[in-house]
Amino acid sequence: MTPLIQKKRQQPNPEDLAQSHSLTLSKRDVARLERSAKKAAPKPAKEPGLLSRLLAEGAQSRYVPGDAGWNRRGGGPVNYIENPVEIQGSAVQVCGFWPFVNGAGLPTIGAPLGRHLLRNTLVTGDPISWFLNGIISNPSAFILGQPGLGKTSLVHRLLAVLSAWGVVPMILADSRPDYVPHIRALGGQVITFSPGQGHLNPLDLGPLVASLNEIDNEKARDIAIQEMISRRRSLMEGIASMMLGRPLKPHESTCLSVAINELDPELRDAPLIGDLVDFIRSRPEVLRQNVLAYDDDHEYDQRLQALLDALINLGPSGAYGDMFAKPSDAHITPGVPVVFDISGVNENDSVLVAAVQSLCWNLGSATVSAEQHLAAAGKRQRRTYFLVMDELWRILRASDDMVHFIDTITRLNRGRGIGQVMITHTMNDLRLSKEHLTATAWGFVERSALVFLGGLAPSEMGNLEEVFALSSKEKALMTDWTGEAVVDPKTNKASRRPGAGHFIMKVGKNPGTPFVTQLTDLEFEISDTNRAWEMVK
């Protein structure tokens, strides 16, 4: 082909034609020429469609396995791939798994509680760690569940981890006792208090309270001492009212307060109950003025006879012997795990139970508060405490005063550096003799930022829905966990109850996190709540 013929077959450029021949093309000619040039231009290659890609991948997987396995005859490819089991541990323990260890999907903050029932991942959390990290607004937790489903075991896990992190556990009324072995294992302090076992003077709040006089700042020292004086007065008024079965009258309360302050105005030398009785009987002038019986001994004795009867009943001649009449055998050691073992107290004597629990709780809270005052003055190191209130129903039904006392703790714990957990069986345990007391007790649950719900009966769901937002799935889980153990016909032994250690962790009205707590062998040894059933083999 000659160059002349080749040139004629090329598409002409409209502008070149116009310049070479000095022609003016119409708009129709220019548009026609542009369409011709566009058709002659090379077109970009199309990307393969979905079907083409799948066919190509399928052909490739016949020779190389893909993410779903060998996609060929006999290859057995899978349609759905489950997430692998996720584990967490130290670098020494899981070094062989690297880099195939992933996060749990939940915040790994707090004590390791167990395995997620749906995701098989680690579930962590505790009221103190979550409060310090801003997840919850109040360092308190509440545990509900039927007996024998692992409530106490969950608390043992919290105690073990938090104590390792520097938090000081305090169990101020262990009535079974469930926590004595654990506190002993931690090297803590066990204070036994019951008839014939130990003595506690209710007028003695401990040497740490007495050391408040060492605070240099006069105003701070007066504030701290006046708080402890008020605590001691409230404690004695509460115990005396329990003995009388009624609240103290105004002149009785005034007389008791004045007498205690006259005997020990600066908390340096705590008197005994007998000293208090002798002082009131001596009819001092300061008491005569407050009783309004200036020169009339008969009027004085008559107005204070009921108060004296209550105090004498606490003395060595009273119904409880010398439990409250002698100097305290032991005081709480600050910064050391402590448990009050009151298992020897007759649970049928509601007055004694209430008095003992009130005394133990006041001693513990006074020690924590005194340490906070001393820490603010630079005299001691500031510590965080973790209070355990197990078998809450016993405490609440012992006395109306205990309801208000616990209510005060739950409202003020955040400012005192105290985390807490309360444990009971059902919401019905919080239904008390009077409506206003029931409302106060239900407030404990409402103010608990972190709640653990174990196996509960279907009839309990209505009570729970008054406080929590529960889905049908969550209610079904809790009722399923109440099933009894199944006996293996081969071994003739019962397996563990299916709901043992299973809980739903809820924060407010958010969806709950179901998990199961798996105890170590050491935890099993110290958390056995059936020691009374051990048989000699």
Q: Which tags fit this structure?
A:
Rossmann fold, 11-stranded mixed β-sheet, disordered N terminus, two-stranded antiparallel ribbon, elongated
Walkthrough of the structure:
With 537 residues, the protein is an alpha/beta fold. The chain folds into 2 domains: 185 residues, 3-Layer(aba) Sandwich (Rossmann fold); 209 residues, no CATH class. Helix content is 43%, strand content 11%. The chain is built from 21 helices and 13 strands. The protein has an 11-stranded mixed beta sheet. It is elongated. This is ATP/GTP-binding protein. InterPro entries: P-loop_NTPase.
What secondary-structure arrangement, pairings included, does this model have?
Layout: H1 3-9, H2 14-21, H3 27-40, H4 50-61, H5 91-94, E1 112-116, E2 122-124, H6 127-132, E3 140-144, H7 151-164, E4 168-174, H8 180-185, E5 189-192, H9 207-210, H10 218-244, H11 250-263, H12 273-281, H13 285-291, H14 297-314, E6 338-341, H15 350-376, E7 385-389, H16 392-398, H17 400-412, E8 418-424, H18 435-447, E9 450-453, H19 461-465, H20 472-480, E10 487-488, E11 493-494, E12 502-507, E13 513-516, H21 521-526
Parallel strand pairs: 3-8, 3-9, 4-6, 4-7, 5-6, 7-8
Antiparallel strand pairs: 1-2, 1-13, 9-12, 10-11, 12-13
Helix pairs in contact: 10-11, 10-14, 10-15, 11-12, 11-13, 11-14, 12-14, 15-17, 16-17, 17-18
